[in-house]
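Q: Antitoxin, please. Structure only.
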Amino acid sequence: MFDALKNLKEKAEEIAEAHGDKISGGLEKVGDFIDDRTDHKHSDTIDTAVDKAQGLVEKLGEKKD
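A: Structure for Antitoxin:
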């Protein structure tokens, strides 16, 4: 099971490295959509969540030398 989780993490890293900019843009769009649907009542919380998710994608996408 540990090997399966390790493989999953490696696959996520590969995807983030190859498509991080698209994922980040998608997260931004989803955040904007949710913000609109909640009548901007939770804008700060949504922005924080999007920023953290984008940071995680960026971290996953960093090349390991």
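A: Brief note, in case it's useful. The two ends are 26 Å apart (CA to CA).
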